[in-house]
Write a structure and sequence with these properties.
It comes from Halococcus salifodinae DSM 8989. The chain has 298 residues and is an alpha+beta fold. 30% of the residues lie in helices and 28% in strands. It is built from seven helices and eleven strands.
């Protein structure tokens, strides 16, 4: 991201890393039953689940400021995922490589402290990449059948609704890289398996009375969901198959999003408004102002 758009911050802060998808509304198959894909299907398009439905689109990973700061996108990485219609040896990006590039981008501008990872980044390689940078990570565990016994034990104890498993080894190529903590808390989603959520973090020895604080802190990552909704409103409409056009569109939308957030921040400072209060300058107002300025400039 250009340095003119990203603020240089001196303090440490929390940065979520997440995936988002830009839909591509074209079926990848000539004949799915016969496993015959379209020969000219864009290689950067992959399948993903949205509300239980398979969809297709371009994948991007972002790293963003959250917490008490202005929510600014610090880095964007295009992601090449392997799709079922591609040959087995088709190239794809490892999640650890994507995270490494995002962290490298962000650390040019801010002092990182903690990284909140989407469940899609659940991987020992990813955790090793974050841990090796002396950063704290926290992420939910997507599937945890191995932990059902722990959950049953929690549920069997009166007055206990959370637990922690200390010093869980995380291995790379069969060797222990570092140890982590597994945190068990009641799930906010009633459909969750066992009505419990499991998180993994590399914090040092989380005490039982700290569990709720750590897992509640993860909720700050949901700023990203609102961010993506706003960002996609800035996306130029295109039907181009040229990936360079798609990448430019997403990056341009991210820059507009950052400019909007920074403009709103400056207005709030001038009005002595709380930084995390609802926007004074709405996204729609900002887009209209930018459009008017561009038309005036010819």
């Amino acid at each position: 991201m250009p340095t003119g758009i990203v603020p240089i911050l001196k303090d440490s802060a929390t940065r979520p890393i997440d995936f988002t998808h830009v839909p591509y509304h074209v079926w990848p198959w000539v004949d799915k039953d016969e496993k015959i894909p379209k020969p000219d299907y864009p290689p950067m398009v992959s399948g993903y689940y949205d509300d239980g439905e398979v969809k297709y689109g371009y994948t991007f990973a972002t790293i963003t400021i959250v917490g008490n700061d202005v929510p600014i996108i610090l880095g964007i990485e295009p992601v090449k995922e392997h799709s079922e219609w591609e040959p087995a040896d088709a190239p794809s990006d490892s999640k650890a490589e994507v995270v490494a590039r995002l962290l490298g981008s962000a650390q040019q501008y801010v002092a990182l402290d903690e990284v909140l990872l989407d469940r899609g980044f659940y991987s020992s390689d990813v955790y090793a990449e974050v841990h090796d940078r002396d950063l704290i990570y926290t992420t939910p565990v997507p599937k945890y059948e191995d932990d059902y016994d722990v959950i049953k034990e929690i549920q069997s104890k009166e007055g206990v609704d959370a637990a922690v498993k200390h010093d869980v080894p995380l291995a790379i190529d069969g060797d222990v890289h570092h140890t982590a903590e597994l945190l068990y808390v009641p799930a906010t989603d009633e459909d969750a398996d066992g009505n419990y959520a499991v998180f993994v973090t590399n914090r040092d020895h989380v005490d039982p009375d700290e569990i709720t604080h750590v897992t509640n802190s993860y909720s700050r990552r949901w700023d990203i969901e609102n961010q993506y909704k706003s960002l996609k409103a800035f996306l130029p409409k295109t039907s181009s198959k040229d990936y360079r056009t798609r990448l430019f569109s997403f990056t341009f939308a991210a820059l507009l999003y950052n400019l909007w957030r920074l403009t709103d921040y400056l207005v709030k400072v001038g009005m002595d408004r709380a930084i995390r209060s609802p926007p004074v300058v709405t996204a729609r107002t900002f887009v209209r102002a930018v459009g008017h300025s561009l038309r005036q400039g010819g």
